[in-house]
Amino acid sequence: MIRKNVLKITKGDYSICPNNKIKKFGRNKILTYLLTPRQDEMKNTFLQLLSKKEEEEFRVVELGCGPGWLSKSILETFPKAEVVALDGSKQMLEHAREKMEHFKSRVTFDLFRLEELDWIDPLDQQVDCFVSSLVIHHLDDEEKKEFFQRLYDALLPGGALIIADVMKANSKSLANYWADEWEKIVQEQSMELFGDLRGLDVFIKEKWNMYHFPDDPADKPSLLSDQLRWLEQAGFKGVDVSWLKAGHAIFGGYKE
Ligand SMILES: C[S@@+](CC[C@H](N)C(=O)[O-])C[C@H]1O[C@@H](n2cnc3c(N)ncnc32)[C@H](O)[C@@H]1O
């Protein structure tokens, strides 16, 4: 695994979290839950799209696990699943490790860099499912195309690639619609979590809404239609989108 160029987290004002909530959920869970439009719906969609039976044994690799909500929900739902959780940030991997202490016999953690594809080689024909949430938009169009091909090649027959990510809007008016929808959901989630709008304030102050602030060079979202085509070109079958909210889509395909 690549151990250089470890990422530093530059955003995320945790001071907004009241102590009792931090105790109950953990700081990162509060932040990712707050900023992601309807993370619970996303989680349920992922769990369905894995297309696995509860007692099945299978191996999942999560690309960019962050604080680990997705890996953890897979371990909770499928008692024989094994997870490899990868992220570019040591800090995030530590949070994820803490969160999954209970499952430590079935989960391993490692650093990786999305752009440096050599971490895929040791996984070749060892993986039933690749999953990823809100990370692949750091690759540009050409990189995504190659990435999908490499993941397809590495998957076992019957395997799946399921991605949640932010999409490029096809027009300015759609970008505005997604921006407003995202802000409205964060407003609702701030009220749910804190009983006030402090979460919305952080969302605005830290410029999380890329449909309002599209200038961060780290964000390279692609059109959903292009990504579905690149998956098909890589060889995936059953390629489709299953969920979309505020520009965040869940889509993927299967290897026969
Ligand atoms: C927006 S967070 C998403 C985290 C989590 N998957 C979720 O859905 O909440 C992006 C994650 O990707 C990681 N990341 C960003 N760029 C990366 C890169 N180039 N290589 C590896 N990890 C990266 C960050 O450390 C962070 O944990």
Report what the structure shows.
This is tRNA (Cmo5U34)-methyltransferase. GO terms for molecular function: methyltransferase activity. Keywords: Methyltransferase, Transferase. Helix 1 crosses helix 2 and helix 7 packs antiparallel against helix 8. By secondary structure, the chain is α/β, with parallel strands linked by helices. The chain has two domains: 14-168 and 217-254, 3-Layer(aba) Sandwich (Rossmann fold), CATH 3.40.50.150; 172-205. It has a seven-stranded mixed sheet, with helices on both faces. It has helices spanning 19-25, 27-35, 39-49, 69-77, 90-99, 141-154, 172-194, 198-205, 224-234; strands at 58-63, 81-87, 107-111, 127-133, 155-166, 237-245, 248-254. The structure holds S-adenosylmethionine.
Mean pLDDT: 90
Backbone shape: globular
Q: Helical proportion? A: 25-40%
Radius of gyration equals 18 Å
Reading the helices and strands in chain order gives HHHEHEHEEHEHHHEE
- At the first level of CATH, what is the class of the largest domain? Alpha Beta
- The strand line-up of the biggest sheet is 3-2-1-4-5-7-6
Q: How many DSSP-defined strands?
A: 7
Measured between the Cα atoms of the first and last residue, the distance is 28 Å
CATH fold field value of the largest domain: Rossmann fold
Helix count equals 9
